[in-house]
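Entry 12.
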Amino acid sequence: MLAEKGATAGVDVRGSAPGTRETDLLAPTASVEEVHAIVLSGGSAYGLDAASGVMRYLEQQGVGFKFGGAVIPIVPGAILFDLGVGDAKIRPTAECGYLAAKAATDGPVVEGNVGAGAGATVGKMDGRDRAMKGGIGSAAITLPNGLIVAALVAVNARGDVIDPSTGQVVAGMRTEDGKGLADVRRQLKSGQLDLPLRLDLPLRGALQHTTLGIVATNAALTKTQATRVAQMAHDGLARAISPAHTSADGDAIFALATGVRKGPDDLDTIGTLAAEAMAEAIVRAVRAATGIPGYPAARDLR
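Predicted 3D structure (tokens):
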């Protein structure tokens, strides 16, 4: 997500397996006040290279902090683990980031199997054999007064995706015959599913998860307030994913505030809307996804 005119940002990282870049500078106590892009990528730690390509693109546009004769774009980012899907040697590079930034528009967001959602999967509580396809989703809420709060998310969760409006599983761990949804919540409560986290990746697919999101608003926020919005947005993630923030997830949500709307706006309203938009975007991600070999999509089980 590009913010070429600069935007105030915050971040909240949860779970125990994060992969991030330049998130420390988003702390309210850090001196940098604005960022120029946020990058979400697949490819595990290799995917962090994508942010370098975005930096190169922004530098060419003269976007960033001016220092002497140099321009320094501030581009935090985060990655999800998808190397177990397809060829692990094919992963995002700096060139991918550059081309993505060059192609960015302010048009409708493409959802499903694109970008960081290309290799995203969900429902891996019992390993990959019963998992389903995840992807990219987006949602936006606009109030009558002009306040906008939107969300973009790459859903690569260990848990199931739940539609908060119905309480029903939309995509997640399948039944043993692969034709239905097992519902991890019921499995855990009944004691049928009791799987300690294992680090032998081929057997359990541990550490192959993480849901990444960005919530953005046209309101004016401080870094402290943006951080609070990112924290509140995790409530939406937890409503739409069960279980969330596990030991094998590196869930992270960034918050961006462009300040185009001068307000004043209520912080708790923005945070509440951010959680709503995040939950909706997560559900949209799996509904927009297309199945790939070994990973059917939500639409395939209808």
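Annotation: Helices lie at 50-60, 94-103, 184-190, 201-204, 223-240, 267-288. DSSP finds six helices and 16 strands in the chain.
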